[in-house]
Inverse folding.
């Protein structure tokens, strides 16, 4: 009655879901020997998301790096999943993009089968369970799901973590962003104030973290859905005034 | 980094767990609950590798509830502890072992209160008091010194406070608050959170 076969069957159910014809058959399934990577994968980023009275705000930088190379200065790290759910991505860009698409597909299938949308909590649990068979492999996905069914924020990571919270920052630049956000984020912020502190937090992280940079993407989620509030100008150009002046600027006169 | 503690009295079990959910050097959550309710009078406290904890604890939780639905009565704490240990043991030598350390605390109407210590190597011991984590090194001798089998509830809470005080004094990591729960013949009771400033 109470046997591990229950878990094994559940595991195999997920595996059969994943080996359905829509996925390439060469996907490695929790192999004991990790396949060596052909080139270094993109990992560094700064993403953040928080709840406030005006909904949920998500922000991320747009730099995709491969070791020391900026592979793409204009990548999208915040991916809409459906009209009222957005996910920030961190880790390996390719893994995140793939798993976000899988999640969108599964959420849409759930909606069609059950006649209602899955909650953000359910979507986070679904993603967490889909990623579990790959624990211990090179798969690296760390996402925050920002949804509107009352305004909810979940952090899901490929190592199995799933946390609900009011404020998360993920990525190599996250410690720098946390310190700015912890000073200024509170429930009563206006949308403009929230946007401005999110941009400043990402900016300060891009100042210190080599693997974050370029522009800032901002998404605002409310009961009406998500809206994108990005400024496509490079964040450094627009927020340069926040930096201290160059030490030699007073003396140089070229 | 994480800390669990359990103290068994003559007719109750007192358990506490810290509230921090960390990811490398960052505290991602300050109010994380590490206790899983298996049934009306059984709690499973679970720490260890990220992801493994929730997956394993929820699996045990759902199976204990399934047993009640199928058979009409609940598993006793000792039975639940042995079931948990068997699952850990079965997975230990598989490709996907669960790296989790557990305390199972419960009240059996026939046998009274029980506290069970389990670790990631699937060892199981029924103990009058137990702790997991680096904090255990600092607090087990306090428990050795002051524990008596006939502790009252207030004395047990006082002993718990002594342990938390020692952690805040000597433990290198900051564990600001602890969830505290008590299990007795009337079920599971939430007690006041222990914060370092209040101790």
């Amino acid at each position: 009655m109470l046997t591990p076969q229950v878990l094994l069957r559940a595991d195999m159910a997920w595996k059969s879901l994943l080996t359905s014809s829509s996925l390439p058959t060469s996907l490695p399934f929790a192999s004991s020997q990790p396949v060596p990577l052909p080139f270094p994968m993109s990992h560094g980023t700064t993403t953040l998301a928080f709840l406030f009275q005006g909904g949920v705000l998500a922000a991320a930088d747009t730099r995709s790096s491969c070791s020391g190379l900026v592979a793409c200065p204009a990548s999208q790290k915040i991916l809409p999943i459906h009209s009222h759910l957005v996910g920030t991505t961190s880790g390996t860009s390719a893994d995140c993009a793939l798993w976000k698409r899988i999640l969108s597909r599964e959420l849409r299938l759930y909606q069609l089968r059950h006649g209602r949308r899955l909650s953000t909590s359910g979507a986070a649990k679904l993603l967490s369970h889909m990623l579990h068979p790959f624990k211990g492999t090179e798969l690296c996905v760390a996402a925050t799901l920002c949804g509107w069914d009352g305004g909810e924020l979940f952090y899901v990571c490929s190592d199995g973590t799933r946390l609900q919270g009011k404020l998360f920052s993920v990525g190599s630049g996250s410690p720098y962003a946390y310190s700015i956000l912890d000073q200024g984020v509170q429930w009563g912020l206006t949308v403009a104030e929230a946007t401005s502190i999110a941009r400043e937090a990402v900016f300060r992280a891009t100042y210190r973290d080599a693997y974050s940079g370029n522009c800032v993407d901002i998404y605002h989620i409310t009961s009406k859905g998500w809206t994108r509030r990005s400024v496509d100008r490079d964040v450094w150009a627009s927020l340069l005034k926040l930096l201290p002046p160059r030490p030699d600027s007073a003396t140089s006169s070229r | 980094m994480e800390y669990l503690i359990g103290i068994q009295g003559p007719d109750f079990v007192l358990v506490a767990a810290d509230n921090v959910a960390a990811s490398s050097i960052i505290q991602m959550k300050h109010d994380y609950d590490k206790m899983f309710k298996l049934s009306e009078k059984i709690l499973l406290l679970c720490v260890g590798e990220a992801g493994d904890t929730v997956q394993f604890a929820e699996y045990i939780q759902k199976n204990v509830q399934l047993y009640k639905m199928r058979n009409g009565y609940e598993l006793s704490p000792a039975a639940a502890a042995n079931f948990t240990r068997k699952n850990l043991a079965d997975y230990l030598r598989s490709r996907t072992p669960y790296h989790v350390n557990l305390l199972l605390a419960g009240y059996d109407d026939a046998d009274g209160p029980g506290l069970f210590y389990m670790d990631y190597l699937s060892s199981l011991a029924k103990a009058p008091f137990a702790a997991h984590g680096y904090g255990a090194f600092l607090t087990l001798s306090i428990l050795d010194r002051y524990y008596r089998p006939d502790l009252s509830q207030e004395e047990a809470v006082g002993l718990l406070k002594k342990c938390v005080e020692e952690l805040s004094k000597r433990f290198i990591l900051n564990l600001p608050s602890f969830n505290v729960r008590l299990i007795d013949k009337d079920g599971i009771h939430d007690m006041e959170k222990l914060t370092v400033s209040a101790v």
